[in-house]
Design goal:
alpha+beta; 301 residues; globular
Amino acid sequence: MRIGILTKKPDSYSVRRLIEAAAAADHEAIAIDYMRCWINIAAHKPVVMLDAKPLEDLDAIIPRIATISTHYGAAVVRQFEMMRVFTCNSSIAITRSRDKLRSMQLLSRRGVGLPVTAFGSSTQDVDGLIEAVGGPPLIVKVTEGTQGMGVVLAETRKSAEAVIQAFQGLNANFLVQEYIKESAGTDLRCFVINDRVVAAMQRRAAEGDFRANVHRGGKVEKVRLTPEERQIAVRAAKAMGLKVSGVDLLRSNHGAVVLEVNSSPGLEGIETATGKDVAGAVIDYVAKNQHTGAKADRLAL
C-alpha cells in the first residue's frame, strides 16, 4: 500500500513516525507538500498534480492540514476524494472541526457536554455576552485557531470588555466561554481512531499560563480516563465526522466537557506520555480501510 501524508512539515515528529510505522507494516508512506499541489478539474478524470506530475499511484492519504491553509488543503483532500482515494479524515470534516462555532453547534446538537459558550461579532450587548457565561473570569477566543492562538483569559469585567471590544474592532468572530477554574490549567487529550480512544494524556500549562498546549510549554503525562470521558471523546469525534482526531476535555465540577476536536493531532506528546505506538494504530486503521475508497460525509450542518 502507498500512502501520501499531506503536510507542510515533512520533518516533523508526527510525519516521521507515520513514515516509520508504515515501513514497519510493509507499506510505503511519503510526505507530500499539499501547498505545492494543484488540481486539474476535469469532468471524467480528476487529478492532483505535483511538480507537473499526476499523483495517481496513492492508495490512501493522511491529511495533516495546517490551520492557516485549511481552505486550500481541504480542496486538495476533496480532489483525492473525487479520485476515490481513501482519506482517514474527509475534507468536510476537517473544515467543520476548524470552525470553533460550527463545531460547538454540532457538539451541542448531539448533546455533548460543553463549557457555557456565547457567540458574537459586532453586537453592542457586551454585558449580555459576559453575563451569559456567568461573568468573569472568562475566556474569549477567535472562531478559527489552534495551539492556543487567539485565546485570551479575561479575569475582570474591565479586561473582558476590553478584549471583546478589541476583537470587535478587528471585525473578528469570537466566542465568549466560561472559565473552568477547577481544571487548574490542565486538560485531557484523547486520541480517537475509528470511534475508539487508543491513548490519552493529561496536559498541564506552563507556570503563568492557563493554556495547556504542548506547543506553549505544557507538560504531559499519562492519564487514566473514566468510562464516561472515553464515551464523550468518541461522541465528539463522531459529531465532527473525524476518524482520526484529538479530542480535548476539561474536568469540571459537572463532569467532563469538550474544549476542542482537532483533525490533525500531534503524535509526539501522546506517544511520549503513554509509550504507545499511536502512529502504528493510525497506519493500521488506514490499511484496514483503504480498499473502501473515499466515503460520502452524511453529517448535516
